[in-house]
Design goal:
The structure holds two protein chains of two kinds. In chain A, α3 packs across α4, α5 crosses α8 and α6 runs antiparallel to α7. Chain A is 69% helix and 2% strand. Chain A is globular. Chain A has eight helices and one strand; from the N terminus they run ααααβαααα. Chain A is mainly alpha-helical. Helix content of chain B is 17%, strand content 35%. Chain B is built from three helices and eleven strands, in the order αααβββββββββββ. By secondary structure, chain B is of the alpha+beta class. The chains are: A mainly alpha, B alpha+beta. The interface between A and B is large, with 57 and 44 residues.
């Protein structure tokens, strides 16, 4: 007996690929759950590359449209494919808007904590990390975010960024050193 | 060489992602909204008509605005500011851009619109914003780049006047469009 996804508890951990199959079988709730699972993090990733959240959202919407159109092929993890699509679209946009320069660096602050003191400290820590990330060259920033924040494997990072395994390792190593140095300087 | 770095992972994973304004039903709706070919063609014809007919004389701010808000068209204004030494100066039609001053573009609209901004100069026309497709804006004032404004420099660095044209249409494929333009004089980048 097939159980419609809407009857499966939210807490049930279905694989992404199973959710996609359920959606392709006509269950819209499966698509929505895939979106809820990945869209915000994907948009956060694209925002850190592009510096523009509205554009990042557009890219994520486009990636999910491609997914729904059946562009994903089961040669790897669906999640890694989503990051690859979003990354390549973001890089494409970055190249074409090279005539633009940022006036300032701002980041929409997260929702405040209940405890104001810890909220301030957390914001300061996060701001330092965000700032340090923005000091990295684009490809190093992408590699470090995909590997350390979004849990892609080194091989998946290589696929997304069109780099060899050795190049991925080299960029991660450099980025770690740079981040460590920048964050240590902030003493946070 | 191990790539593991639990401390860095923890720090990066603790970062917040901004909330999304887009939701899954909206994306699903895009899938069910495959338009027949003639609708984009009609929309393109409407834009061309608006450009040919709608662009006219400047208003008090020096912005071309004839026909805006009429016949169901959105009322839009193109905004430009030059930022220098921490101060922002609005630029009007025909103004000179101060040397080295970043120029930020924006628009004011009385309703939700799809919009594009193009630069027309000696070398032809180039898309200024968005990088591809159309930008979308709700009623109100918007600046390119949002909270982190983007400053524009012409690709061709030579001095001279360039025309900036904003085209804005209602959100629907067949909605009316309006257009406004602004001329800016760019300085010689090599001038002392």
């Amino acid at each position: 007996m097939v159980i419609p996804l809407r009857d499966v508890p939210e807490t049930a951990e279905l694989e992404d690929e199973a959710l996609l199959a359920a959606w392709q079988g006509g269950d819209d709730a499966a698509f929505d759950r895939l979106w809820q699972r990945h869209a915000r993090a994907l948009a956060g990733y694209a925002t850190r590359l592009l510096g523009d959240h509205a554009q990042a959202e557009e890219l994520v919407g486009d990636a999910f449209v491609l997914l729904a159109e059946g562009r994903w092929r089961p040669r790897g993890r669906l999640k890694a494919w989503l990051y690859t699509v979003v990354h390549r679209s973001a890089v494409d946009r970055l190249r074409r808007r090279s005539r633009w320069t940022r006036l300032q660096r701002l980041w929409r602050p997260p929702e405040p904590d209940q405890d104001p003191e810890s909220s301030v400290l957390r914001l300061a820590r996060h701001a330092a990390v965000e700032d340090a990330l923005q000091h990295l060259p684009e490809e190093h920033r992408a590699a470090v975010l995909l590997f350390y924040r979004h849990d892609l494997s080194a091989a998946e990072v290589g696929d997304a960024l069109s780099l060899t395994d050795q190049q991925v390792r080299s960029k991660l190593s450099y980025a770690r050193r740079q981040l460590r140095s920048l964050l240590d300087a902030e003493a946070l | 060489m191990s790539l593991e770095d639990p401390d860095l992972s923890r720090r990066l994973q603790a970062l917040d992602d901004p909330p999304l304004s887009l939701d899954a039903p909206a994306v699903r709706a895009r899938l069910g909204r495959r338009r027949p070919l003639w609708r984009p063609l009609l929309a393109a014809a409407a834009v061309l008509l608006a450009v040919g007919v709608g662009v006219g004389l400047g208003d008090e701010a020096g912005l071309r605005a004839r026909g805006l808000g009429a016949e169901g068209r959105p009322a839009v204004r193109l905004l430009a500011i030059a930022e220098r030494d921490g101060t922002r100066r609005p630029l009007a039609d025909g103004d000179r851009v101060p040397p080295e001053a970043p120029v930020v573009f924006g628009l004011v609209t009385d309703r939700p619109v799809r919009w594009t901004l193009d630069e027309e100069g000696p070398g032809g026309a180039v898309r200024v914003w968005p990088v591809e497709g159309e930008a979308r804006a709700d009623a109100g004032e918007h600046w390119v780049g949002g909270d982190r404004p983007l400053a524009w420099r012409p690709e061709d660095p030579s001095a001279g006047t360039r025309r900036y044209v904003i085209r804005a249409c209602g959100p629907g494929a067949d909605d009316p469009c309006a257009s406004t333009a602004l001329h800016l004089q760019w300085p010689d980048p090599d001038a002392p």
